[in-house]
Amino acid sequence: MPRPLNHHPALPGQPAKRPRLSRRRRTGSAYVVVLAVMMVVFTISTGALLAARAQGRTSATLSDAGEARSYALSAIELARVIIDQDANWRTTRSNGVWISNQPIGGGTLSLSVVNPRGALNRADNDPVTVVGTGVKGSAVQYVQVTVNSTYAAYTALSTAATSGGAMSLGSATVSAHNQIVASNAAVTASSSGIDADIESGSTANGSTYSGKVSLYAAARTLPDPSSAFTYYMTNGIAIPITSLPTSGGSKVIKQVLLCPQANPYGSANAQGIYVIDCQGQNLVISDCRIVGTLVLLNPGSGSSVTSSVNWVPAVTNYPCLMVYGNMSIALSSSSLTEVLLLGVNYNPSGTPYPYPNGTWNLLSALNLDSFPSQIAGLVYVSGNLQTSGSSAVNMLTVGGTLTSSGTLTLGYVTTFVSSPPPGFRTITVSNASGSWKRVVQ
Fold first, then answer.
1. Beta strands 139-153 and 107-114, pairing class
2. Are the beta carbons of 306 and 284 closer than 8 angstroms?
3. What φ, ψ does residue 16 adopt, rounded to 5°?
4. What are the CA-CA distances from residue 198 to residues 167, 170, 181, 203, 302 (Å)?
5. What are phi and psi of 50, to 5 degrees?
């Protein structure tokens, strides 16, 4: 029997030798070990690489989301800038998208503004919901906040009469007991018939005043003519000056009823707001009943409200008369009386006296009623105002000088300071506390 090649018999008296492994077998085992180690290293390296790539994608996504959120917040700030720079933003804009996909940084922003109570211009103090949208890559973020509007009346509305310029009362009798009559300049009177508390931004010259006199008082705030008329011009009905009849060389509004239900010169306005551009022509308003707000632009120097007029606003806290320019008021103490032959009914069923909760009656149907001659509301004149006759007006706000003769009877009404009309108030806009919301998509 052949012996194994590597077998060596033991010598007598010596132990048998183990057979030696071949070099080829040892080399194969080492290769297997190295291959296993390499597989482990490859697996670890591949896992680390995949983890790094996943972490990179996560970091990029988080970075995009952060940028998208900053773009959404920028949209909210942009809304505040628009609102702060445009005093009439509620009328110049509307509910819905204000900005769409405007580029910013590496993405875009969008902005929407909505009044949850109705039209954007429904009321100046309505809150609005502002939503800013920011987009960066695949990241989209929405930020929402409620913006509140609060307003305060110009301080002129805390007085029965205020003038931005000098106030010359002359020998006039001013009846305004326990009410304030103020001028941001000097006050002059030559009689002692001034029954009012006087505020003067300078001196008070003349005879003894029967009320308290305050000198060098702080100036009262007045409407800005550049913006005070905007709301009324936007929401009113225009009456062309050419549609008015002419009498004595002046355009006239006379022996008519002008109100929300009736406009003898065109379409009616539900708020009773009517706008007339006088184009430099004289306009004389007399012997009529007005329920509404009449806005006069560019009146001629001879323009006036005269004779017997009964006038109230259709909207309680709106002014009766707004004049961009100069004006005269010279009312009569005689009542406004209907004349049967003229066929003018000043007290129809749709516009009862007193408005709006009065009652019309048989005499009004026969055109035989009479009404006190007065402007029972607020009058604003951006320029100079002259009063004479027996003028009765609740409140006067005058941007220029106020000059009075005859009798001026004032009757301060708190309505205008507690609920100031458009154009007569400052508006403060602020983000409602606790209204911030963020939605991530």
1. unpaired
2. yes
3. -70, 140
4. 10, 14, 5, 10, 29
5. -65, -40
Q: Are 192 and 207 in contact (CB under 8 A)?
A: yes
How many C-beta neighbours within 10 Å does residue 204 have?
19
3-state SS string over 131-147? EEEEEECCEEEEEEEEE
Burial (0-12, 13-18, 19+ Cβ within 10 Å), 71: buried
Amino acid letter, residue 204: A
d(CA 250, CA 259): 22
Instruction: List, in sequence order, every residue forming a beta bridge with 395; answer none if it has no partner.
Output: 378
Which residue would you say has higher pLDDT here, 393 or 345?
Answer: 393
- Max Cα distance, the chain (Å): 166
Which tokens go with 206? 């003349």
DSSP state of 262: B
Q: What letter represents residue 209's amino acid?
A: Y
Asked if 281 and 300 count as a contact pair (C-beta separation under 8 A), the reply is yes
> Which residue type does 222 have?
L
Rounded Cα gap, residues 328 and 326, in angstroms: 7
Is the model more confident about 350 or about 155?
Answer: 155
How do residues 2-57 score in pLDDT, each as one tens digit? 444 454 554 455 555 555 544 555 556 656 555 665 665 555 555 555 554 545 55
pTM over 0.70: yes
Phi, psi angle pair for 241, to nearest 5°: -60, -25
**CB-CB contact of 280 with 298 (8 Å):** yes
Give 403's contacts (C-beta < 8 A, 6+ positions apart).
Answer: 167, 168, 170, 384, 385, 386, 387
Tokens for 19, please give them: 């057979």
Strands 425-431 and 161-163: unpaired
Q: What does DSSP assign to residue 236? A: S
CA distance 110 to 68: 11
* N-terminal to C-terminal alpha carbon distance within the chain: 86
The answer to whether 211 touches 196, Cβ cutoff 8 Å, is: yes
